[in-house]
Amino acid sequence: MSRLSIYNFPSKHLAMNRFDRQLRLWGTHGQQRVEAGRVCVVGSSALSTEILKNLMLPGVRDLTLIGLKSESYIQDQFWDFASWNIVQMDWDANRMKCSKFWECYALVIITTGNAEVRDILRRVRMPPTLLCRVSKFHGFLTFVSSEPHFVIEAHRQHQTADLRLDRPRDQLSSFYCNLPRDPLSFSEWPFAAVLYQARKLALQEKASLKPLNREVLRHHISLMQDELSKNGQSPNLSEAYRFAYLALQNSQHIPENVRECLLLKDKPCTLPYNQNFQNLLRALCKYMSLPHSDGQLPVSGAIPDMESSSKIYNALRRTYMEVAATDASIFGSLILPIAPQFPLDQINLFCKNSRHIRVVSPVKNISTLYDFQGPKSNDTPPVLVFRSLLDMPNDETLDKEHRWKYYPVISAMAGFVAQETTKILTHQFVPIDNTMVYNGMSNEVSVFRI
Amino acid sequence: MCDPEVSILVLGAGGLGCEILKNLALQGIPTIHVVDMDTIELTNLNRQFLFRENDIGKPKADVAAQYINDRHLTGFGGRPIRVTPHFQDLTLFSDTFLEQFTLVISGLDSIEARRAINSRLVRITFESKFQKCIPLVDGGSDGFKGHCKVIIPGFAACYECSLATLPAETESYPLCTVANNPRLPEHVIEYLLSVQWAEAHPGQDFDYADGASFQWLMSNSLERAERFNIDASKLTPQFVLGVVKNIVPSVASTNAIIAAQCCNEASKLLYNEYDVERSKNFLVYNGEDGCFAHSFVHERLPTCLVCQEPS
């Protein structure tokens, strides 16, 4: 039985499981990816121990640590390392120079600057890899992969409501047109309906001579307010006033992040997630060429809460969900010829998030990373830090005093590495694009692209 | 070289607290105290690594201290590293107790507790006529986001000076909406807790940990959702509990980043590498889209009710 299905409800742990607090971040489907992801850490050090701890805690079950004979690191007596179920092995150049050895891992994390490891791994085809180093107050982390990294659920914090008031699907316009129209019922309309109405009135009046703008819309909203009552402000109309810009969106606009993904729809990819995602992109292209789509991305179906009567709001919400379901089912009929038995929940997830899909372009391979190190005159300080850490011939061995002083920097870097790892494994949230440098002295984090 | 006499008080032994305590032990700090009034729950174990499943129900402070003390580590000046637990409300500490510490690091989830300790430490600076100053390093985390603030009480911006930068408190819904026009599952729960529970159970507080009470909330939520035609698919026990307890998501990696940032600031303070005037005392972190951190100097608020100098 999977750990996820255990609910101790209604016992004292109350509908909870160990991962409750992170399921609220990436859902059970994200958790399944975390638990299924095999991760290999190369190099044995305080940094790699902290990384393994940060991956074991959220539930990564299959962890491997490859240690180097040259390493003098002794596991801190702080940890119950033995209880973490880590597969441990020694670095073995003969075995590890074949890409076959690495292909079983979803992600490899290289924490050592060892020259032999570097020289061998730069010639091997590797799975997605994170490479990190740390020294005193500084650390860097680079995302290396021969393939792009796609994200369906970027979880954008501030999403603009997806209302399509400029070019509503038929079902939506008939919903908006059939609302009770007497002035008294205006107070029960959700702001989306108010905006639809204001837009319509504005267009009729202006006969499309001038482009619509917020002032014109707001003028019509005030007229509606006057019809309702001259004194006071109905809360739904104030919301409409505030969100007037939502009636000015161009629903046929394809955001830059979506176009970047579409450009990569036919790039040769071997990772199963990427092949699936590219099938979704191909279906999206077909979808956009159908008359049904009207050049608009699939409707997400989610709408924000709006001041209004429960009845009208619920009906509005249902209508948007129905429109989204129609879009998703048409989308589904396009992907099935490309990829039979494509999972329905992924189709729905993609359609729901189609405006927010993202792609990150990791450094192509480890060689590219090392080739980047030639001197350049216009390097910024973080780039200089990155170069000096990358060039550091040996892994740092500090005396006790300095180990104490700089321990938090190691701990912070291990946190960054683990955070990027969970984002890469779940394909949720957006990983670094593609290199970050941490400066623990100035408290700065810099991200740049190699 | 750091003074072996240093002693640090850690507030909270939760997600941030476990990381902070571990870091301090591995930073060689011999004298550490920890205060926390919570007991261990199953849902802590995805990040609070000083606890195991058979510790559930025990006080966090005790178990965390025990874990570290059992390692028999040696710190500055060859001194053994000892953690002293306090299973209690931190606002009940006396000033004399607080005055023994070199600095305080907080990994709390409560704004009120932070305000309380902040004003105590500012007062200590003022009452000692600036002879004694106990820095407060404050960490907070929420999902992939977090912050770290360094407060030098009486010398630089205090916690109270930055209150205005906090996001609006937990969302509350207008009563007329939750009573007459509920549209979201949250509205349903809010009404049941703020109005109906008291009507049905006069004089009794709602306790989510009580099975029967929670069952009452669940079944009434579903009923009320149905009555108002609200989509009930979201009303799972986890969702309802999340709303009731106002649960924020929490993962090991963010706690590691924020706690490390706090302990790194502590390092700078202890090794005299911190510049009270110029060091960037505030840092906000967000790992949702790439890796974003912004650090800056937060100036003192001249009108701050807590750290305005007594005239």
Automatic annotation (TrEMBL), chain A:
Source organism, top-level taxon: Eukaryota
Molecular functions per Gene Ontology: NEDD8 activating enzyme activity
One GO cellular component, as annotated: cytoplasm
GO biological processes: protein neddylation
InterPro entries recorded: ThiF/MoeB/HesA, Ubiquitin-activating_enz
PANTHER family: NEDD8-ACTIVATING ENZYME E1 REGULATORY SUBUNIT, UBIQUITIN-ACTIVATING ENZYME E1
Protein name: LANO_0B02058g1_1
Organism, scientific name: Lachancea nothofagi CBS 11611
From TrEMBL, chain B:
Residue ranges of domain THIF-type NAD/FAD binding fold in the record: 6-291
Domain of life: Eukaryota
Organism: Lachancea nothofagi CBS 11611
First-tier enzyme category under EC: ligase
GO cellular component: cytoplasm; nucleus
Reactions the enzyme catalyzes: ATP + [NEDD8 protein] + [E1 NEDD8-activating enzyme]-L-cysteine = AMP + diphosphate + [E1 NEDD8-activating enzyme]-S-[NEDD8 protein]-yl-L-cysteine
Keyword field contains ATP-binding: yes
UniProt record similarity statement: Belongs to the ubiquitin-activating E1 family. UBA3 subfamily.
GO molecular function ontology, one term from the record: ATP binding
GO biological process: protein neddylation
Assigned keywords, A-Z: ATP-binding, Ligase, Nucleotide-binding, Ubl conjugation pathway
SUPFAM superfamilies listed in its UniProt record: Activating enzymes of the ubiquitin-like proteins
The protein's name in its UniProt record: NEDD8-activating enzyme E1 catalytic subunit
UniProt function note: Catalytic subunit of the dimeric E1 enzyme, which activates NEDD8.
Pfam family, one: ThiF
Residues annotated as the enzyme's active site: C176 (glycyl thioester intermediate)
